[in-house]
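Postdoc handover notes: sequence design on the structure in folder B. Input tokens:
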């Protein structure tokens, strides 16, 4: 039997410090003459810069020799980079991963998408050139719906894609290769992806968890009309750079003097997006992009957890992106000389520069690795003519200041490029930012429980007024729990710190209440519909669970459940009331998750706590939502889709009353 293929990037890390890069994340040292085993060189993340500046000329020669040898060996075809989408991808310097139901993008009260609000919010970090509309994870697995359903069941999705494309963005759909346990369609994933991208008008596909697509998916993408862009989540090997025009520079550790991104050095038009998703300090990511002429992933909400950018890093990225967009021809076509041009005094202070020479002029991209601002003569040989600070938007003096953990752009124009004056004016008007404090968000209850006047069921379970300590359990996923980010400043979270069981004790304050012993049944909900004529704002489009009169009603949204409860003079129980009453509760058949009145929002993500578990259990991947019947203390943080997509055959509800 063949040995299973083991991806070293995904290997468990039981003995490693999660706050330090793993060996696989470290930069690669290039041997003399650039002779490196292709098994290592073709997948390197970063080629480390030597510690001694005296070695940099040799290092640059070795880099050129390595690239020439690799290209001669692999004979890359650049046809896809010459397509319209390929050319646009090469200048897509800022992209974002955006949850379809991000509250800046979706107005739940109005029931409509608001792309203009999202784009306005993203202007703080310099705006976007592209985005991935992620859709299924971490909700997928709540029932049998597959990843294609979570796109196709969204009303108006194609119109949303069109709105973003009209605003000048590249739009990517998300592909989850691990989704093998949900409803099958009879078509291959490659066929589904091409069909979906065509239906919604997407420009490309983001390859979740994958460095590269398989041959079938590559064929499907390249044979589409026009060809679809492919972006891998991690280090795309040289062999696949020709048909993967973008990739993430995710969890890439760098040398002290900034190194060179291997894939971009191999093919200048290949766009990388630097990211360490759980960081609260993004200076290293922005500096790497600045020194390499590459991009950044602006991911401020990771699967429902707020990880927003501080003012300092947002201001730095704004300035960087303006230069990159205005001077993109220099970065793509100019002669790039890594680590060239800085003065000895600057280098000694941890200030480094790279040189880009083009018909428009010479650009030096400069970074300060130090903890304090540095002022001095940055360039060893300043040009005889004009020198401008393109990051601040002014003429550069004899000495320049490079902010701590910041950047500087110096430009010696050859004449007066048309893009220069508008760039300087815009940079000069930017107020900047120096505050590196994390801009925390706190969630609030979206619908605080109200007082009820109805009569409880005779057999309802009593909840006493008390301040008990409750033990909550959950499986640690990237959604976190409440407002807590699970992996702050950590390198890649892997087992045993990923998907492991967690437990905590919380003290809560309860009022007197009674919780219905059983979920609302199909027959009871049908009586409500008959008596009131209630119809949901978005009609049910999914298969419900059992239609037996005594079965729990499913396929109902939170709003539907609240409407029923109000008709009964009741409300939904909170998660703590549900857990406290849990030992006395009964489950209808089949068992389903229960909505609670613990719906929360931090202004970006809206979620609800589900209790009780469900007989549905989707298997085949740890990325699916938890299934199976759960103990009362188990908590599931479910991100809330809109437009009826939150309705599920695996979710029902029960009601509660305040005790007199």
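Designed sequence:
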């Amino acid at each position: 039997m063949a040995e299973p293929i083991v991806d070293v990037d995904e290997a468990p890390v039981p003995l490693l410090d999660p706050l330090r890069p793993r060996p696989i994340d470290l930069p690669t040292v290039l041997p003399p003459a650039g002779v490196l085993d292709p098994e290592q060189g073709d997948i390197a993340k970063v080629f480390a810069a030597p510690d001694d500046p005296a070695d940099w000329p040799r290092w640059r020669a070795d880099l050129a020799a390595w690239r020439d040898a690799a290209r001669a060996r692999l004979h890359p075809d650049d046809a896809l980079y010459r397509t319209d989408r390929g050319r646009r991808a090469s200048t897509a310097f800022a992209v974002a991963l955006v949850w379809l139901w991000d509250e800046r993008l979706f107005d739940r009260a109005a029931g409509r998408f608001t792309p203009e609000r999202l784009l306005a919010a993203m202007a703080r970090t310099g705006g976007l050139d592209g985005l991935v509309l992620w859709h299924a994870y971490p909700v997928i697995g709540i029932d049998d719906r597959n990843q294609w359903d979570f796109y196709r069941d969204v009303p108006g999705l194609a119109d949303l894609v069109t709105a973003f494309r009209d605003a000048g963005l590249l739009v990517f759909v998300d592909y989850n290769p691990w989704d093998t346990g949900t409803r099958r369609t009879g078509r291959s994933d490659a066929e589904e992806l091409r069909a979906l991208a065509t239906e919604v008008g997407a420009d490309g596909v983001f390859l979740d968890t994958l460095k590269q697509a398989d041959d079938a998916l590559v064929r499907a993408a390249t044979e589409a009309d026009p060809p679809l862009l492919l972006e891998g989540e991690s280090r795309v090997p040289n062999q696949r750079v020709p048909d993967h025009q973008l990739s993430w520079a995710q969890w890439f550790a760098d040398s002290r003097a900034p190194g060179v991104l291997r894939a971009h050095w191999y093919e200048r038009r290949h766009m990388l997006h630097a990211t360490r998703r759980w960081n609260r300090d993004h200076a290293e990511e922005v500096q790497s992009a600045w020194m390499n002429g590459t991009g950044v992933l602006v991911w401020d909400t990771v699967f429902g957890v707020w990880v927003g950018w501080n003012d300092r890093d947002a201001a730095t990225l704004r300035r960087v992106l303006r230069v990159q967009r205005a001077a993109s021809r220099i970065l793509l076509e100019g002669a790039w000389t890594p680590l060239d041009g800085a003065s000895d005094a600057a280098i000694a202070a941890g200030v480094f520069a790279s040189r880009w020479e083009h018909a428009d002029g010479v650009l030096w991209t400069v970074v300060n690795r130090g903890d304090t601002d540095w002022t001095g003569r940055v360039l060893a040989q300043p040009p005889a003519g004009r020198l401008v600070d393109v990051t601040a938007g002014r003429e550069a003096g004899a000495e320049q200041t490079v902010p701590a953990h910041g950047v500087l752009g110096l430009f010696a124009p050859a004449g007066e490029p048309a893009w220069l004056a508008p760039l300087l004016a815009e940079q000069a008007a930017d107020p900047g930012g120096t505050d590196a404090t994390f801009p925390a968000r706190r969630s609030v209850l979206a619908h605080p429980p109200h007082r009820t006047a109805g009569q409880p069921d005779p057999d309802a379970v009593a909840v006493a007024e008390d301040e008990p300590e409750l033990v909550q359990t959950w499986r640690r996923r990237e959604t976190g729990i409440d407002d807590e980010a699970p992996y702050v400043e950590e390198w890649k979270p892997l087992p045993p710190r990923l998907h492991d069981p967690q437990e905590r004790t919380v003290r809560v304050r309860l009022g007197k209440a009674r919780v219905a012993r059983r979920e609302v049944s199909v027959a009871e909900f049908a009586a409500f519909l008959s008596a009131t004529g209630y119809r949901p704002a978005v009609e049910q489009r999914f298969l419900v669970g059992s239609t037996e009169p005594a079965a729990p009603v499913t396929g109902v949204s939170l709003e539907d459940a609240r409407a029923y409860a109000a008709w009964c003079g009741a409300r939904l129980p909170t998660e703590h009331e549900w857990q406290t009453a849990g030992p006395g509760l009964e489950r209808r058949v089949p068992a389903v998750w229960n909505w609670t009145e613990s719906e929360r929002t931090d202004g970006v993500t809206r979620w609800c706590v589900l209790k009780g578990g469900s007989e549905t259990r989707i298997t085949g991947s740890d990325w699916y939502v938890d299934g199976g019947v759960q103990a009362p203390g188990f908590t599931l943080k479910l991100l809330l889709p809109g437009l009826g997509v939150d309705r599920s055959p695996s979710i029902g509800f029960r009601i509660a009353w305040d005790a007199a």
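Context for whoever picks this up: Confidence is low (pLDDT under 50) at residues 1-5. Don't rerun without checking with the PI first.
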